[in-house]
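Quick one, tokens below. Sequence please?
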């Protein structure tokens, strides 16, 4: 009985609420400020993005490294969001969201040294963050494609929405970093790093499971 509710919750990880969808479909012309707000709201409430970014910065200490990896994610996210919303690039939303879940699993697994333990080989983290950023952006684009958006001012609105997403990302990431810095002051940080990243992987596997269930059951 509860399965549909949970499935809907998971598929809404970075989706658009019905209220926001109605507002978006009512826009006719450029609406820069409202789209900036909606983009920021999407990122701040998009727990799938936040889980992935938390994994990305978990063991990053230098500001330059944090900026590099976040910039790579931003680049990937922006490319496919714009390509999907404006260029018509399409993909199955369930499969894309399952890959987003996989990105969370990947980062948690990498953080616990899983690749080195299994094969002695370490993938290029920078490339992985960029590639997974592409899927995160496409995930949101698939949600926007389901809406009947006016073509009047569409480019301005989508660019504004994307800018809002990145602003929201900065705000959310600031909160994550503040929490991590506070935690790093305690010895429990390294002691519980393995458990924290295992929990991160569990969240990713859960998201993958719900999305693949929706895909194979043909839920729409």
């Amino acid at each position: 009985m509860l399965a549909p509710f949970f499935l809907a919750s998971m598929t809404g990880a970075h989706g658009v609420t019905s209220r926001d969808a109605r507002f978006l479909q009512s826009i006719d012309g450029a609406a820069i400020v409202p789209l900036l707000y909606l983009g920021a709201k999407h990122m701040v409430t998009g727990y799938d993005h936040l889980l992935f970014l938390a994994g990305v910065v978990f063991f990053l200490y230098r500001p330059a490294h944090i900026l590099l990896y976040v910039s790579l994610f931003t680049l990937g996210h922006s490319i496919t969001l714009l390509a999907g919303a404006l260029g018509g690039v399409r993909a199955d939303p369930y499969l894309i969201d399952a890959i987003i879940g996989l990105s969370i699993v990947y980062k948690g697994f990498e953080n616990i040294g899983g690749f080195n333990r299994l094969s002695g080989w370490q993938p290029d983290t920078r490339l992985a963050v960029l590639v997974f950023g592409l899927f995160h952006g496409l995930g949101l684009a698939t949600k926007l494609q389901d809406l009947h958006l006016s073509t009047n001012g569409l480019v301005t609105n989508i660019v504004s929405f994307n800018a809002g997403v990145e602003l929201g990302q900065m705000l959310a990431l600031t909160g994550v970093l503040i929490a991590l810095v506070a935690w790093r002051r305690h010895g429990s940080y390294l002691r519980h790093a393995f458990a924290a990243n295992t929990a991160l992987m569990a969240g990713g596997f859960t998201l993958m499971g719900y999305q693949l269930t929706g895909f194979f059951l043909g839920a729409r």
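Residues 17-217 form one domain. The chain has one domain: 17-217.
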